[in-house]
């Protein structure tokens, strides 16, 4: 049985359990005074808005140069994928694999995963609640690795600055990529996981 079926509302601020009051539009938490809702207002719409914006920015994040490495006054801008290829060519396959997974695979999985969650919740697709919650938790787990590329670039820009001898500068692709990461993180936070359990008829999900 869901909490909402028992007439219980959970405060999003302090997690206090509140008995749902009848004929009350704006019920407040008995502990902290924050507004409590059965579900986060406009959760699906807000998550879609963040996700679509992230998907649009994902294109320039991969097409535009993410950083420029200059040596003796000459610099070559590098996109994420070209950087991975250069690492492979220099024999640094493990590092290339880490960058590829963190910068290409993880953001793509998050975009597709959140979209599938939203679509399955809205359209009541034949995806069990257990599968949905597993996907949601996995998206939350891998989210922390999405900023790896940005952290590496930030460290390199700060450390490698030898005037005309050698410099590393962040380019527009880094801004777009950071925006994608932040937007997907916000989308995961905005999505209300309790929607996963709504309208679920599978007996397997209530074992």
UniProtKB/TrEMBL annotation:
A cellular component annotation (GO) from this entry: plasma membrane
Residue ranges crossing the lipid bilayer per the database entry: 48-72, 92-120, 141-160, 172-191
Subcellular location: Cell inner membrane
Keywords per UniProt: Cell inner membrane, Cell membrane, Membrane, Transmembrane, Transmembrane helix
UniProt entry tagged with the keyword Cell membrane: yes
Name under which the protein is recorded: Paraquat-inducible protein A
Natural source organism: Pseudomonas umsongensis
């Amino acid at each position: 049985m869901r909490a909402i079926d028992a007439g219980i509302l959970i405060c999003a601020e302090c997690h206090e359990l509140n008995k749902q009051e009848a004929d009350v539009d704006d019920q407040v938490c008995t502990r902290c005074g924050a507004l409590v809702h059965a579900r986060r207002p406009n959760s699906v719409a807000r998550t879609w808005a963040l996700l679509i914006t992230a998907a649009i920015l994902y294109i320039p994040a991969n097409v535009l140069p993410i950083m420029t490495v200059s040596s003796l006054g000459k610099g070559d801008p590098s996109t994420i994928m070209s950087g991975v290829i250069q690492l492979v060519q220099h024999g640094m396959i493990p590092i290339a694999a880490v960058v590829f997974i963190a910068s290409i695979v993880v953001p793509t999985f998050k975009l597709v995963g959140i979209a599938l969650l939203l679509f399955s919740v809205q359209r009541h697709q034949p995806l069990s609640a257990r599968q949905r919650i597993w996907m949601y938790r996995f998206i939350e787990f891998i989210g922390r690795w999405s900023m790896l590329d940005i952290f590496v670039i930030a460290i390199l820009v700060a450390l490698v600055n030898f005037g005309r001898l050698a410099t590393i500068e962040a380019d527009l692709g880094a801004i777009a990529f950071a925006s994608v990461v932040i937007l997907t993180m916000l989308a995961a936070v905005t999505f209300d996981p309790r929607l996963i359990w709504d309208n679920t008829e599978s007996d397997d999900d209530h074992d």
